[in-house]
Amino acid sequence: MENHWKGIPELPNTFGKERIIRVCDNVSLRVFIWEPIEKSSEIPILMVPGWGSVFEGWRPLITEWSQRRKIIYVETREKASARFDNKMKQKDFTISMYVNDIAEIINKLGIDDDFHLFSSSLGSTIIIHALQERKISGKSSMFLAPNQRFRFPIWAKILIKLPLPKFTLRWLIKIAIWAVERKVTEEGQKIRYRRTLISQNYERIRFSARYLMGYSLPKNLSNINIPCAILTAESDKLHGSEDVDFISEKIPNLQIIPIPSNQYAHQADVLKEIDSFQSILENNEQM
């Protein structure tokens, strides 16, 4: 198995550094920071990818994006790069813990609110929750496939809840890969999820799943007062359209941006949609 959890990927025309940031008494998270070699005046991006997501799935987008803007890429605590000083427990993976992690990283990096947010799946759910609780802010926030709640099949819920020994967790991951590949039609999306699932700390993923299966976003999202948009693809069968409908109704003045596919959002081509949304905001600020 490729090791996705050591060292920062080298990207062209950028300076990159890896930071290990302590977010609470017993947890430290890995953060990648890339800056263009040619100095840029464009506002930085704080990026929080999805559940278990590995960098390789985002390489095409970030390779292009990081040559234009500073990118701060946060790996959340369910990922194998996270460092736990003490034995992990299920309570270590509540949304409030994730929210506090992001707020602490922003504080430790000293970036105030001078950034755009970009997030996917679980990352989007964390950011929405954090914005509603006013734990973080920013210039704007763009979400890809946000979850209002996490829908696991009944068979998966049973297996996740069972106190199975650790050596069986690898088989659960293989079952999950089989289930995802049956549901997903895009080949690029299949490859990304297969790579993601086989690269995990299985016990950590199980703890996280046990909490997430009972979580849903707050019904009131009216505290979110920065410009927001959702990138959504009709062809994405893994993330429900009902989540997009719920969130778009609850966040004031949110914009829906259709894209051809979920895989498209991981490619450099999606910068056309992102730049269009963010440039309008930045031009309005200058007026």
Q: Concise description?
A:
This protein has nine helices and nine strands. With 287 residues, it is α/β, with parallel strands linked by helices.
How would you describe what is shown here?
It contains nine helices and nine strands. It is an alpha/beta fold. Strands 1, 2, 3, 4, 5, 6, 7, 8 and 9 form a nine-stranded mixed β-sheet that branches. Helix 8 links the parallel strand 8 and strand 9 (255-258). Helix 2 packs across helix 3 and helix 5 runs antiparallel to helix 6. The longest helix has 16 residues, at 271-286. The termini are far apart.
What tags apply to this protein structure?
287 residues; 17% strand; alpha/beta
- Share of β-strand residues: 15-25%
> How many helical stretches?
9
Query: How many runs of DSSP E, i.e. beta strands?
Result: 9
Distance between the termini: 51 Å
Task: Describe the main β-sheet briefly.
Answer: 9 strands, mixed
Helix/strand order, N-terminal first? EEEHEEHEHEHHHHEHEH
How much helix is in the residues? 25-40%
Oligomer: single chain
Uncertain residue ranges: none
By helix and strand content, what is the structural category? alpha/beta
Q: Rg from C-alpha positions?
A: 18 Å
Mass-distribution shape: globular
Query: What's the overall average pLDDT, rounded?
Result: 86
